[in-house]
Amino acid sequence: MTSRVYRLHSTLELQLDDVHDFFDGYELPVEIDDVEVTRRNNTLIVSAVAAEDNISKYTPTAQLKASVTENRIYETEDGWQETPPEPQDGAAASGDDDGPQWGSFGEGGQMQAEEVEVNSKLVEYACFKGDRETVLQNTALQYPMFEVLRDLALYADKGTLTAIAAVDDQLEATRIVEGEERSASIEVIDDPRERESENSVNWRDNKFISE
């Protein structure tokens, strides 16, 4: 049986450089010989190259699709982060109103706090966001490429990945949050449309209704 992904939702975000670093040292599933990483304007596409010759070169293979955006990050004591550090008051004053005050004076003699310059830079991010048809496209090599996305989610530290896939006639649930695998379960419920059809009244064939 061919493994298949039925449902998928992703909110993964990685720095674009981290995506390239991931594939540089990544061991691909046996069904995939290589991946082609291309960029078209603000879209990043990671396409699977089949390891077997039984897939025609004209058959579109599975691909991961991400939008590329720019985010500003700030240098802090803990490293580069997306959240700017808390503003620091560069001026200090004593508790005595009559005592000396330290700082800088602007026009009119009014005291001004010294602004502490914060280093920042713009960094490109790859955002794998959306449902299956948006993030994981095409049928050929779909499940092996999902395995790639799952490992990419474990490599990322921002965003979530949830999915339901069929592997060897068994449904498997995946849930990864900020790079950590979490427990997940599958709840099978009746289709509401089926329940409605079973409980609905057949107005065309009802003995309590006279013509």
Write the layout of secondary structure elements.
Layout: E1 4-15, H1 16-24, E2 32-40, E3 43-50, E4 63-76, E5 79-81, E6 92-93, E7 101-102, E8 104-105, E9 111-112, E10 120-131, H2 132-135, E11 136-137, H3 142-155, E12 160-167, E13 170-177, E14 180-181, H4 192-199
Short characterization:
This protein is of the alpha+beta class. The chain is built from 4 helices and 14 strands.
Describe this structure as you would to a colleague.
This protein is α+β, with helices and mostly antiparallel strands and 211 residues long. It has helices at residues 16-24, 132-135, 142-155, 192-199, and strands spanning 4-15, 32-40, 43-50, 63-76, 79-81, 92-93, 101-102, 104-105, 111-112, 120-131, 136-137, 160-167, 170-177, 180-181. The strands form three sheets. Strands 1, 2, 3, 4, 5, 10, 11, 12, 13 and 14 form a ten-stranded antiparallel β-sheet that branches. The chain is globular, with a radius of gyration of 28 Å.
From the N-terminal CA to the C-terminal CA, the straight-line distance is 53 Å
Q: Give the overall silhouette.
A: globular
* Rg result: 28 Å
Helix/strand-derived class? alpha+beta
Number of helices: 4
The overall pLDDT average reads 81
**Assembly category:** single chain
Main β sheet profile: 10 strands, antiparallel
Strand content: 35-45%
Work out the number of β strands: 14
Low-confidence stretches: 89-97, 206-211
Order of helices and strands: EHEEEEEEEEEHEHEEEH
